[in-house]
Specification:
Layout (H helix, E strand, L loop, with lengths): L18 H14 L4 H6 L3 H16 L6 H15 L2 H15 L2 H10 L7 H15 L6 H9 L4 H24 L6 H4 L10
Length: about 200
């Protein structure tokens, strides 16, 4: 994909980023080598961009009984159900990166039921998928199964919160035809050498 391709199908006015957001973008450039297009897409409104960053960073990087990899796995599965090109590409790369295993990353992206993950992780993803496909069908038995597998009530909240956030993000990305950064496609594709 050409870097000159539009980020979205909408023509939104550019705005001057406030100092905190300019620093955040600079930090992205330094750490990743690029600013994710989702952030650029929100950059027409400082308030919306800041709210998106704050919630996303809290859900994906903040304190939780779920690992960062597990939260990325939830993002991928919700995005798979919703056929969200942007989030599958970006968060598929994050799963590959966090797992340090491109085969696992791609399998989780395509069909987590065939992936080499734990029963507990499969149940977590089953819950996220059910919440995405049929939120009105979630019942105590679903939460009880997660508890039996060792998830705390706070963990269940976090599974639901990550799933809900990506359902919102997927719908917005689809509505505006948000395009992923080209860098995501090749990210974390080489499996590290096995150590003795």
């Amino acid at each position: 994909m050409s870097e000159s391709a539009p980020l979205t199908a909408l023509q939104l006015p550019e705005t001057e980023l406030d100092l905190e957001l300019r620093d955040y973008f600079r930090n992205c450039e330094e750490k990743r080598g690029f600013v994710p297009n989702v952030l650029k897409a929100y950059a027409f409104d400082n308030k919306k961009l800041k709210a998106f960053i704050d919630l996303s960073d809290d859900l994906m990087l903040g304190e939780s009984g779920l690992s960062r990899l597990e939260r990325e796995m939830i993002a991928v599965e919700v995005s798979a159900v919703n056929h969200c090109h942007y989030c599958l590409t970006a968060h598929g790369a994050a799963v590959r990166y966090r797992s340090k295993d491109p085969m696992l990353g791609d399998t989780v992206e395509h069909n987590y039921r065939a992936a080499s993950i734990t029963q507990k992780q499969k149940a977590m993803l089953d819950f996220a998928v059910k919440l995405t496909e049929a939120p009105d069908k979630i019942e105590n038995a679903d939460r009880d199964l997660l508890r039996q597998l060792g998830f705390s009530d706070r963990d269940i909240w976090d599974i639901a919160a990550v799933a809900a956030f990506f359902n919102m993000s997927n719908r917005l990305a689809g509505a505006v035809d948000m395009r992923p950064n080209a860098e995501y496609y090749g990210m974390a594709r080489t499996k590290p050498e096995k150590t003795a």
